[in-house]
Amino acid sequence: MSPAQSANSRRVYSTDGGRHCPACQRPVDDCVCRAESRPDSGDGIVRLHRESKGRGGKSVTVVRGLPLTGSELKALAKQLKQRCGTGGAVKQDSIEIQGDQRELLKGELESRGYRVKLAGG
Q1: What's the whole-number mean pLDDT along residues 46-67?
Q2: Helix (H, G, I), strand (E, B) or coil at 80
Q3: Angstrom distance (rounded) from CA 54 to CA 68
Q4: Cα(114)–Cα(106) distance, rounded to whole angstroms?
Q5: Which of helix, strand or coil describes residue 112?
Q6: Domains in the chain: boundaries
């Protein structure tokens, strides 16, 4: 491959790591440019949603609007899951906690200094 071709080519998909980030050329799971950017904090209010769509009728509480990224978000999710005694996951910039835990999470997040509103459902 000539130098001109290598400058204009980039890896889009590899069977080794799956999809690659267009900015840093790393696998999406190991992307460093996404971890560095802070999420849009919006209006500064954390919203607690109850959702059940696409989950076989089982409800989850979704925490959105947290001004945290990457490892900070995962650490908070772990603490919230332990407080509720349930499982959950971090997806994109939100935390999903199994079950309808909105009241418990509202008290916990307010004690940590966040402004919290119940939204949806």
Answers
A1: 89
A2: helix
A3: 26
A4: 9
A5: coil
A6: 12-37, 42-119
Q: Average pLDDT of 33-51?
A: 72
* Domain 42-119, CATH homologous superfamily name and number: SUI1-like domain (3.30.780.10)
**Res. 98 pLDDT band, cuts 50 70 90:** very high
Q: Please give the pLDDT value at position 4.
A: 57
- Indicate the SS3 state at residue 94: strand
DSSP result, 34-63: HHHSPPP-TTSEEEEEEE-TTTTT--EEEE
pLDDT for 38: 53
Judge whether 86 and 99 are in contact, CB under 8 Å: yes
**Is the distance from CB of 32 to CB of 61 less than 8 angstroms?**
no
DSSP state of 27: B
